[in-house]
Amino acid sequence: MSNRQQSRAEIIRQKTEATRSSNLLNDLFASVALEDVGACQYVLRTILDMKDLKVDWVKGQYRLLNLTAKDSILDVYAEDGNGRMMNIELQRWDTDDHAKRTRYYSSMLDKSSLDKGLKYSEMPDVYIIYISEMDLWGTEEALSWVKKTLGEKSLPYEDGSHVIYVNAAVDDGSEVARMMKYFVSADPDDMSHGELSKRVRYLKKEKGGLEIMQKTVEELVNLGLKEGIEQGIEQGIEMGIEQGLEKGDANRSKKTAINMYQSDMKVDFIARVLETSVAQVEEWLGLVPA
Q1: Closest-CA residue to 241 (of 2, 7, 59, 1)
Q2: pLDDT at residue 236 is higher than 50
Q3: Within the chain, what is the greatest distance between any pair of CA atoms?
Q4: Whose CA is closest to 26, among 77, 76, 87, 92?
Q5: Closest Cα to residue 31, out of 217, 230, 221, 225?
Q6: pLDDT grade, residue 152 (50/70/90)?
Q7: What does the alpha-carbon distance between residue 106 and residue 288 come to, in Å, rounded to a whole number?
């Protein structure tokens, strides 16, 4: 086996183990867990307080193609029986412009619905559900809806676009807060959350779950470590590790390092894969002053 093949196999093994042992705030583990219709439906019903909501279709790591700008990969995308479009995003770090990120995802979903030939009046409602580890806005609420109003009288302004922030840092005694505690623990022996608990237990404790996780990780590696390796996307991981990293720009390598670190990979391993120094990786991750 060549060094490149060993590196690829080691990436898959480490990332599979790290992801399978993580919790539901890990975007990759959550995307696999919530790709199950029953688990996703449980989460959406709890957050949106729609007990009769029926998920018809769901996909984790769902790619929205954009010919004129960068593609978007949604952590979890679902549609219900009424055609409503729902995107669940997981955010562990407070290092982004969260409002503009939700705006971008919402616009991409709007565009995809118009591509189907709908009139504006026929556009489906879009829900962006943004789940974070911390209370990003300091609301001291486990769940906060973004409310749109018009004029000095603050008249309700409804355009079918909804943004909901959920966080695991605040326990306000609500059903959502209770579910967020489970997101943090992802305890496979805790069966108190219905279909979500069943799915987590399956992924963490059963052979079939391990196979699903490994297949998902391998697919992402084959795409170039979640788009981090520029040449690897086009030429495959074999040439990607050898050539893509050499020709790719610093921003791509930095993005790869962040993705791998968020998936609980160690700094020294990231440095070996990216063929750079530990000091450089630590700088990209903000662990030392730039």
Answers
A1: 7
A2: no
A3: 70
A4: 92
A5: 217
A6: very high
A7: 35
Instruction: State if pTM tops 0.85.
Output: no
Residue 164's identity, in one-letter code, is: I
Looking at the DSSP bridge assignments, the partners of residue 165 are 130, 144
Give the pLDDT confidence of 98-113 residue by residue, as tens digits. 999 999 999 999 888 8
